[in-house]
Amino acid sequence: MAIREIVTVPDEVLRRKARKVTVFDANLQKLIEDMIETMREAPGVGLAAPQVGISERLIVVEYPENDEEEDAPKKLFVVANPEIVKVSPETEKGIEGCLSIPGLVGEVERPLQVVIRGQNRRGQPVRIKAKGWLARIFQHEIDHLEGILFTDRATRVWKPTPEEEATLLD
Ligand code: CO
Predict the structure, then answer these.
(1) Deepest of 20, 56, 67, 144, by most Cβ within 10 A of its Cβ?
(2) What distance in angstroms lies between residue 70's CA and the mean position of ligand 1's atoms?
(3) Is the peptide bond preceding residue 10 cis, with omega within 30 degrees of 0?
């Protein structure tokens, strides 16, 4: 495994629509392992392949499935070609940051629950139901595959206070 360099704005790879993953070979497994290590080292709760300069539809997320439970264990998700197939009508505002946009946060309103379809690291189909922060992380990472950044969706963007920084979503 290796830690890869995280690409930051205004690198144009962050604005490109990423290519579909079609080959689930050893190179892809290596990229996945590197993305997991890079996310953990940052540290962050999610990372999309364009953020390490690879314009492919691949995301990793590590966050509890249900963060309302106390001490809920983190769960690692690796999803290739993720698609949001269902969103709840209920939305929620939350404060987001991004490893590719250092020093800024923004308030973003997103659906509270989503259903994601995609493929696991072996290419097998997966379906994930997510709510709350986990749903927000998935939406943020999937946006990266379309070249969309949280600052595009935010109603306001600002430099966080140290207290806000401690609770950030990457
Ligand atoms: Co991001």
Answers:
(1) 144
(2) 26
(3) yes
- Confidence at 69, pLDDT banded by 50, 70, 90: confident
> What average pLDDT does this structure show over 145-152?
98
Angle at 22 between CA 117 and CA 85, to 5 degrees: 15
Report d(CA 149, CA 16) in Å as an integer.
11
Ligand 1 centroid to residue 155 C-alpha, Å: 16
CB-based contacts of 120: which residues, under 8 Å, 6+ apart?
78, 79, 80, 126
**pLDDT digit string (tens) for 25-57?**
999 999 999 999 999 999 999 999 999 999 999
The secondary structure of 134-165 as a DSSP string is HHHHHHHHHHHHTT--HHHH-SEEEPPPHHHH
Q: What is the pTM of this model?
A: 0.95
Does residue 141 carry a catalytic annotation? yes
Catalytic hit among 70, 141, 163, 165: 141
CB 147 within 8 A of CB 15: yes
Higher pLDDT, 32 or 162: 32
Ion ligand 1: residues, Cβ under 5 Å: 98
